[in-house]
Amino acid sequence: MPEKEPAHVERQDRYEEVMNMARALQHVKNTMTDAIFITLEPWAARYRLKPGDVLEIDYGLECRHESHAPLEVHVGMEGDKIGLFIWVNSSGDPKLRLNGGPAIEDFASD
């Protein structure tokens, strides 16, 4: 009969599995009264979120940094609009949805 792993080892494995799943999906909601921009770097893919819009970013496991470090998020200005710059692993291909539908890149200046 094979030996069973100690419970703490099994719990640690499950904890890491849950943390990996939680870190692969992110929701960004615009609660401001004006549009904001979300830019994914290093691609410079930009998405406009109007007030109340929700952008869902599914990074998948290949988009996370190999070190499992948290994703870097910088806040800055895109012209006269607030922008979030999210740095992801360039070898991945995140899936994006805006309000449940396809997210279209938006580089308009207004």
Write a structural description.
The longest helix is centred in the N-terminal third of the chain and has 17 residues, at 7-23. Strands 1-4-7-8 form a 4-stranded antiparallel sheet. Strands 3-2-6-5 form a 4-stranded mixed sheet, with no helix packed on it. By secondary structure, the chain is α+β, with helices and mostly antiparallel strands. It is 15% helix and 37% strand. The chain is globular, with a radius of gyration of 18 Å. It has one domain (7-102). It contains 1 helix and 8 strands; from the N terminus they run αββββββββ. A hairpin with a 2-residue loop joins β7 (95-98) and β8.
- How far is it from the N-terminal to the C-terminal residue, by CA? 69 Å
User: In total, how many domains does the architecture comprise?
Assistant: 1
The helix-and-strand class reads alpha+beta
Percent range for helical residues? Answer: 10-25%
Strand residues, percent:
35-45%
What best-fitting shape do the alpha-carbon axes yield?
globular
Give the beta-strand count: 8
Average predicted confidence as pLDDT: 76
Placed side by side, the strands forming the largest sheet appear as 1-4-7-8
Question: Which descriptors would you attach to this protein?
Answer:
110 residues, alpha+beta, four-stranded antiparallel sheet, four-stranded mixed sheet, 1 helix, 37% strand, globular
